[in-house]
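Q: What does the assembled structure look like for these inputs?
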Amino acid sequence: MNWLMKSEPDAFSIDDLKACKKGIEPWDGIRNYQARNFMRDSMSVGDRVFFYHSNCKVPGIVGVMEVASEAYPDPTQFDPKSKYFDESSKPEEPRWLLVDVKYVRHTHRVISLTEIKEHADQLGDFPLIRKGNRLSIMPVTDQQWDYLLGLE
DNA sequence: GCCAACGTTGGC
DNA sequence: GCCAACGTTGGC
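A:
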């Protein structure tokens, strides 16, 4: 499958990912059940992922990465010093999962949310442009993937 | 910084 | 199980 994953660039940007060792990093901090279930049930190693910058000056797609691991427990949920600490999650029954992601490339330019919205008719149902949607990991159909990359 | 939309929590 | 209160997301 194909995916889109959001990150605030102030916290973790695509440049940060590129700078990681081998361009691979655990995508930690997902605390939303729907997003977690996508990782657990539907993601496979090698799946393509759009890197999306949210909550910033120009929100939009900034690059491509790929899924580099199966889902496994997010260690930050057990770390009291982490802002993602969840005291109600127990190691024998972890509540939150993550996958590793691997940098592939930057897009040639930012494909902004504004621009994506202008193509709503061609994209069909797409969670990113649904009103009020806050999902941080969402599936992207093959058609949507090709169409969005065609804009770059 | 504002605020709409949404998810979660907890009292009842 | 309902729902008000609260916290978070994320565009603007």
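Residues 32-33, 131-134 of chain A lie near DNA strand B (CB under 10 Å from a C1').
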